[in-house]
Amino acid sequence: MQKNVNRLFLFYWPWLLIGLAVSALLTGLYLPLRHTPFPYRIIAVGKASTEGIAFWYSIAEGMAAAANEFKVTVDYRSPVDESEVDRQIAIVYEAIAEKPDAIILAALDADRLVEPARAARAAGITVVMVDSALADVDKSPQQSFIATNNVLAGQQLGELVLQRVRPGAQILVVSPSTRGDSLIGRETGVRAVIEDAFDVLPTLDTGGQLSDDIYHQVSQALTEHPEIKAVVCLNEYTTAGSARAIRGLSLTGKVTLVGFDSSEELIDYLEEGLLSAVVIQRPFNMGYLSVARTIDLLNGRTIESFYDTGSIVITKDNIYTGENQKLLFPFEN
Which domains does the chain have, with CATH numbers? Predict the structure, then answer.
């Protein structure tokens, strides 16, 4: 009898295992799925909203692409625009309270964001800077910086003015802020090239406002200084606002406009000749690399202190070359 039981057990045992496996599989199909948590949580604090601002939209998209590839969580947050330094500081402290593994920060004010960044490091949070660094880099808590070489990009802008405007002409430089590291670098580069050759007015600081407000500020400057022959803009929406001002005062063809960054609006201005040229960055790459290098740091790897993502001059003549199309229309390729 015992022998028969043993034979039956040996005969049915494989089928019993198969049955259990199938049962487990079916159970798994009908139970709620359990999501495996991502290994790292990163909070990115930008300078401005991704709504309507192509540069920050592209940065956030680059971050999202890296997050998807490396299976981490990246949460992008920001003030509405670049005038809200206090709000950005508050966002950093709110992020610290949530204890993420890392904070990626684009500092609106190179000096005032040093203390919030130090607080993050003191809490054991990795800090990586993107687009704009902190003041006193050697003593700051930033662990790496991913950005355009902004002094070099500013020099490219200055060279555009030299090529297009007669020496001695009056020039207006328009910046969204004189406190951000990236903007300080661009202005430094521009002025190094043009100050000896032109009458350069004091920089118009638009206070981080968006294009509609900049339109009024630049219109006023052009009205008060009718001898201005060129306007040099240091970011996307100062360029857009200045273009609207030049058009509104019927100065197209009389005032040369060169700018920084790209958007569909700026491409339209290039095509019609209102905008002479722009220096563009690689914001998608900047966002992607900021996440990739942050993960390297979290994994204990040694990385460079600075990564230059590069810049390139775009004119009406080279908008539609293959490589430039990828930069200007990154989500249509």
Answer: 41-147+282-302 (3.40.50.2300), 150-280 (3.40.50.2300)
